[in-house]
Design a protein that fits this description.
- The chain has 331 residues and is mostly helical.
- It has 14 helices and two strands; from the N terminus they run H-H-H-H-H-H-E-H-H-H-H-E-H-H-H-H.
- The chain has a domain of 225 residues.
- 75% of the residues lie in helices and 1% in strands.
Length: 331
């Protein structure tokens, strides 16, 4: 029996590895098959997936509800834009600065948030999302942020005289950063720290009794989550080539939260499904109804949540298990 279980586990692991390799291969091949416009859309899908992944860490695996991650996305975007525009820093070199700045801001916000929980924390982070665009317009910092006019940055050219255009290179660069971020998240959440985060989410009293420093771990989780979303903001700024306060309204935070729920609250691959939803479904809704795209979007959202209450990742996982039982001999 144990040998059979081990063989089944090994086959499942091999199947997952083959699936991941196939998806990555298809993602790389897309750079040479799609038009520049569609590559821009796919680049934003990767950007949103990283941002939702940051939200997954703090909400899905640690149980802290955040409705303000659009603020960290904005901070990351402006960090990159300012460094590129005022200090002529290479686009790739801005990512570590964005990560440090957003992690620091997330840590500082996480400290007072320790006294709050549930809906109170959600409202606090929501207030952060509402305030961020107004802060970016303030006269004290408009020399750096560009005020209401924002900042225009240039699209990076492919290095080493590679025989690809700028859109292909930007997509491949963003995809490479996304792979690194997802690998880091997987290692973090599948290890001892990830188990401690889930223990706090499921039963804080029991986790504290086991010796887990709840306050410090929650704060660090918020910082790591902000870092992921800030890096996504940096990549988004490079892709769009423009940042302005009104681009980071509270609706951005809501869209990221929608992507989290649609993809699967506590699922790493769910961030990809959620990113696909918030990038393409609004376009589909607009094509279906020019008069009331918001109503169509709402209907599609309700339909997805009804058909897949556990998120798209849970739905795909369930369908895969059913398919495996159907094709398994004697199943």
């Amino acid at each position: 029996m144990s040998g059979s279980n081990a063989a089944g586990t090994g086959a499942l692991t091999a199947g997952r590895g083959a699936a991941v390799a196939s998806v990555l291969g298809a993602a790389v091949a897309a750079a040479f098959l799609f038009s520049d416009y569609h590559l821009f859309q796919l680049t934003l899908v990767v950007v949103y997936a990283i941002a939702i992944l940051g939200l997954t860490i703090v909400t899905g695996f640690n149980g802290q509800i955040s409705l303000g991650h659009g603020a960290f996305y904005a901070i990351g975007a402006y960090t990159t834009a300012i460094l590129m525009d005022r200090y002529d820093m290479p686009y790739w070199a801005t990512l570590p600065f964005s990560a440090v700045v957003c992690a620091g801001v997330g840590f500082l916000i996480g400290l007072p948030a320790l006294r709050l929980g549930g809906l109170y924390l959600a409202l606090t982070t929501f207030a952060l999302a509402v305030a961020t665009p107004q802060v970016l317009k303030h006269k004290l910092i408009e020399d750096y942020t560009g005020g209401v006019q924002g900042i225009v940055i240039s699209k990076p050219d492919p290095p080493f005289d590679l025989p690809i255009d700028a859109d292909q290179w930007l997509y491949l660069f963003t995809l490479a950063v996304g792979c690194v971020m997802f690998l880091l998240a997987w290692n973090l959440l599948r290890g001892r720290i990830g188990r401690a985060m889930m223990a706090i989410r499921d039963h804080a009293v029991a986790a504290e009794a086991m010796g887990i420093d709840i306050a410090m771990l929650k704060t660090r989780t918020f910082a790591v989550s902000a870092m992921f979303t800030g890096i996504a903001g940096s990549l988004g700024a490079i892709a769009v080539q423009f940042v302005a306060p009104d681009s980071f309204s509270v609706f951005l935070s809501i869209f990221l939260f929608v992507g989290l729920v649609v993809g699967g609250v506590a699922s790493i691959p769910g961030a990809i499904y959620g990113a696909l939803f918030i990038q393409f479904v609004p376009n589909v809704a607009d094509q279906l109804s020019k008069a009331a795209p918001g109503a169509v979007y709402g209907i599609l959202l309700i339909a997805v949540l009804y058909l897949a209450p556990g998120g798209a990742a849970g739905f795909v996982r369930s369908m895969t298990r059913r398919l495996c039982r159907m094709v398994r001999p004697g199943g």
